Amino acid sequence: MEADKLPDWNNATVFLQFWIPETAVPVWAWYILIFVFFSILTTMGVNFYGEIEYYFGMFKFLSLIVLFFISILANVGAFGNGYVGFRYWKEPYGPIQNGVNGFGQVFVMAAAYYVGTEIVSVAAGESKNPQRDVPRATNSILYRILVVFIGMSFFQGLICPSTSDDLVHPGSKTASSPFTIGFTLAGWKSSAHFVNAIILIAFVSAANGVVYIQSRTLYSLALKRKAPSFFAITTARGVPYVAILFSNMWGFLGLMSLQTTAGSLFSYFTSFGGTAAYIAWAVITFVQLRVRAAAKRKDIDVKTFPFTAPGHISIYWGNFLFNIFLLLIQGFTVFETPFNYQSFIASYISIPVFFAMFGGYKWWFKTKWVPLDSIDFSGRLRRSLEEEDTLQKRSWGRNVLDVLKD
């Protein structure tokens, strides 16, 4: 299950209630409408999905650039409330709040929304030339991080104070985007309508993509008899509608907000999703380390692989250890007095769940741990020198990283 699916429905209802109060449309009704909408949208087939995601992706990118531009206008006082500058980067606001807990929670929040970039490998199964397309898509992630994630953090931190009561917190029933808060403080009082519209369109794209990936993963597992066989049932056009409907139903977990605040639920879901992301990335890096170690033991040059992760191996050891560190530190404050068992469960439940599922899989399918000497590289596709030159010309950023190669 894609953990970042869970807060999406919860967030969408929070933003929808900005226009339509709960007295007019109850929360549970929004969830039913969202479920029906995405059930129809995601069973239209991969061609429709690809077409709509193309336009959604273009819209999101252009919208982000517009938000960055408006943030500059807000910062310099174009909306009438004066120059802001770097005021919110200083006391009593500052870039890091709440000490070590704030440090850990920021990374958990980032992980919950950044998780998913690794699923580019899923596209290999539907690509005509995965040896070319997957490396190209993987290399492009660097630029997305620079523009989207770092750009958003920079501009939101520039115009929105970290102490604003309108930001999402455990007691929140409704909340505003940092862009909305920043634009309103700068003098644009009706900015919430503009920003909320962009967020809801981005939500449609994000949830659509998550359902697609999760359902195709279930479908692939069912074909390999590693998931219940009914997930392999498809329509006449080959759409795995059972897996799609099952994947879509996870959004109903957001109805727990009826028994708690939307802010608390958001915190629980992002904690679970963020820690699950750390586990996934740690495992991916661990596999990378084992593959390199096995190749070295067999005297195989990793440059002959169809795609090689750039950089010295020490980068990946550091990545692995940093993920483990963040996984353990992100729930640090739950041990303070009084002990918060709900936050403890949300912060650390993914760890025993991972080991239970890993151990259960090994036991059920009777698989064994493969020693380094037994890892088989005989089926790998070697890159020719011509292909290597083409890939190097295509990615100048990777050329820089390759300087650090061992």
TrEMBL record:
It is found in: Membrane. Its main location: membrane. The chain crosses the membrane at residues 28-49, 61-80, 100-120, 141-159, 194-213, 234-253, 265-287, 313-335, 341-361. GO terms for cellular component: membrane. Pfam families: AA_permease (PF00324). Residues 12-368 form the Amino acid permease/ SLC12A domain. The keyword Kinase does not apply. One of its GO terms (molecular function) is amino acid transmembrane transporter activity. It is a multi-pass membrane protein. Keywords: Membrane, Transmembrane, Transmembrane helix. PANTHER family: AMINO ACID PERMEASE, GENERAL AMINO ACID PERMEASE AGP3. This is General amino acid permease AGP3. It comes from Penicillium subrubescens.
